[in-house]
Amino acid sequence: MSDYWRSHYDTISSQFDGSLLKQVGKTVNGQEIPELQVKLIVENIAKVLRLNSCDYIIDLCCGNGLITRQLAPLVKDIVGVDYTLNLIDAAKKCGSSSNVL
């Protein structure tokens, strides 16, 4: 990954104001997208991948785990991976299911 993108994500993730949506850029004109939009994103992922309780997922570039946490109840186990330590720290602080690794 380029130094530019690493620096970009390190910077935006360190400006955490308590909004998981803002931290990972789920905004329009600086405003958080509605929770319904996040729900539709998760439902679409589950539908396209045909997820079920026997599946294992690896979520590359999971960010702060916003989507990872919502997919977790649908699968056996899910692993979140990200190169931005601030985002991984936020994911850990926000808690998760026992099947999120």
Spell out the blueprint of helices and strands.
Elements lengths: L2 H12 L5 H4 L3 E2 L2 E2 L2 H15 L6 E5 L5 H6 L5 E5 L3 H9 L8
Parallel strand pairs: 3-4
Antiparallel strand pairs: 1-2
Task: Jot down its keywords.
single chain, 101 residues, alpha+beta, Rossmann fold, two-stranded antiparallel ribbon, two-stranded parallel ribbon, 5 helices, globular
Describe the structure.
The chain has helices spanning 3-14, 20-23, 35-49, 66-71, 85-93; strands at residues 27-28, 31-32, 56-60, 77-81. It is of the alpha+beta class. The protein has one domain (3-93): Vaccinia Virus protein VP39 (Rossmann fold, 3-Layer(aba) Sandwich), CATH 3.40.50. It has a two-stranded antiparallel sheet with strand order 1-2. The protein has a two-stranded parallel sheet with strand order 3-4. A hairpin with a 2-residue loop joins strand 1 (27-28) and strand 2 (31-32). The chain is globular and about 35 Å long. It starts with a helix and ends in an 8-residue tail after the last helix. The model has no long low-confidence stretch (mean pLDDT 89).
